[in-house]
Design a protein that fits this description.
It holds the Pfam family Peptidase_M8. This protein is an alpha+beta fold and about 350 residues long. Helices cover about 15% and strands about 20% of the residues. The chain is built from six helices and 14 strands.
Length: about 350
Amino acid sequence: MLRGTAHMENIKSAPLPPSNYQAVSASTAALLYSISTQVFVKDNLTHCIDTCKSETMCGEVIVPEEHLDACRICNKAGLNCRVEPGSVPGSGIDGADFVFYVSAMSTERCKKGLTVAYAAHCQQEAALDRPIAGHANLCPESISTKSQELETLLSTVKHEILHALGFSVSLYAFYRDDKGEPRTRRTETGKPPLNKTLQTHQWSESTIRTVIRHSWQVHGGSVRREMQMVVTPRVTAEVRAHFGCQDLEGAELEDQGEDGTALTHWEKRVFENEAMTGTHTQNPVYSRITLALMEDTGWYSANYSMAQELGWGRGLGCDFAMKSCKEWIVTKTAKSSVPMISA
């Protein structure tokens, strides 16, 4: 693993390489070198300025030395780049595809809102950008180990693992198509362009597209509503099949919530008890739509036989999937008292 950075070359004999910066928040924990002026990248290897930190963090966890690559350094001008004398790579983790570091610490982020847990990737491989190390922190005050709540805890852990594996605002720009080609163009650095507002890499419209509803009905009238939708091929096919709406552009992402919620979960209004929405719900399910997203990263193959059935909105058509709750209720109440979850 590369020390203190957000990338990993491979896991075997591929440690976290050290750097002079640490990633900021959990949702942007995979911030790349070009956001920081404190590291240089030479030949796809991250180099620290003058020296490496004594400890490398992945989330709240100190990464063991044996997981770390050698310390590579350059001077402040980005010259005289070399392996720091006496630094040797660790043994790595032979035969692993992904390393997941887990902690249970009461952090400042745990104290914000209703945070139960948070996660992100820490490093990506060089060849295809696949995440190969990540972390999750479970907030002790917000979780229970009681036997009757074990399923909830397990669902929380699964949810966080999927964030680290690919369902993350910091990874959308790295998704690849079925041929292994990047969905988002690369700059001269070899990485996607930066979005300084979001403090992450900007994805292309072939991955997430801005969709505008010009007459979104609300109490007292209508408004113009802008939403972000995942429009990758498998996700689009799955949401159209689920709702029975061939006009649906894609799968809507959450636009509300604190850091780490918006843009990194499915929209609650549309997907309710899908496990990758941003707030806990009863009977969370991991549906074909989430499996499709993971496959559309270009890094995984999904076993759809393991998908759980999502009843919310199934077969209710374009009115349900593309219009506001108010408009749906107004137009349907007079016709039927059937609840929103189909049989």
